[in-house]
Amino acid sequence: MMPSSAEMESRDKTKRVFSGVQPSGSLHIGNYLGAIGRFSLFQEGYDCFYSVVDLHAITVPQDPVELRRRTVATAALFIAAGLDPRKTCIFVQSDNPSHAELAWVLQCVSTFGELGRMTQFKDKARGKKSVTAGLFTYPVLMAADILLYDTDVVPVGEDQKQHVELARDLAERFNKRFGVTFKVPEPLIPKQGGRIMSLIDPQKKMSKSDEDPDSRIEVLDPPEEIARKFRKAVTDSGREILYDPERKPAVSNLMTIYSLFSGKTLEEVRDAYEGKGYGAFKSDLAEVVSEKLRPVREKYSELISSGEIEKILKDGAERAYVISSSKMREVKEKVGLSSRLSF
Ligand code: AQP
Fold it and tell me: Which positions are annotated as active-site residues?
């Protein structure tokens, strides 16, 4: 996955990148293609901050022991997917108190109406008897995550575009009301792979929290499991391997995955499987994905057993706090809040 020419052109060491991933489940290939697999593309050219956003994860119920385990596992996956902790700052959101602190201030410049228009909130709240206030204000916490670091670029999947737009609106509103304080960030969404769909229902996004684990390929799935899930993946009527998201959404999704993991264009994939049917295609797809993820699985196992991750996260939190606490001092000053105990 090479950076696009727009990404290459905008490379600049003085620019900041921020992105976060919730430890709300096992990371899947949608998270990989939309986010973590792209994180390392920026580490040579930008000042990067990548966070495991556990405060976001508790907007829905979590088992505390499992949450702590997944938080470390998610950070280890960042590194296994190519991040070098000597070049980027990797940290856990709840280790840095500035995030919750700025989120409160930003909630006081956000409106109920604009948060009610967030489509992810509507999707996650649909059919639930009760939803937390945290789920409703989640996008404001995300705005705080981004704005604390004077972020220029936010690499995310398509589902997060509306949230980054809210962060832009809040930055502009705050700057207008209190004087220029925040940079206005830009989302960076891949042209292909920004929205990988469920293997079971191609109208739905692939998701960590989908109740059916067969709807997603997890980054750490062993090869046999990857092959089984692709075999079970729904396909459309007809036998042709054809990219047509309207008429053949399931096959188009599988072709996108194949193309991104193999580096082949969609046309090359179509031509390679002309007249061959779904069986051969799915079996090769499993092989391609499994092989591409092999080094990630291996590096992850090494890291988890080495115990190195704790030190990396502690150093990352300290570095993040130096920057975010200075931004918080500026915010408090501008808003008229007290900071007698700040250091
Ligand atoms: N299906 C997807 N295709 C491409 N990118 C995706 N992302 C998520 N799903 C897809 C991107 O992965 C990053 C991390 O996502 P997140 O942890 O912030 O939560 P999310 O966007 O809500 O992702 P999930 O997997 O659906 O988690 P749950 O089920 O917990 O809500 C983001 O950059 C996201 O765009």
Answer: 124, 205, 208
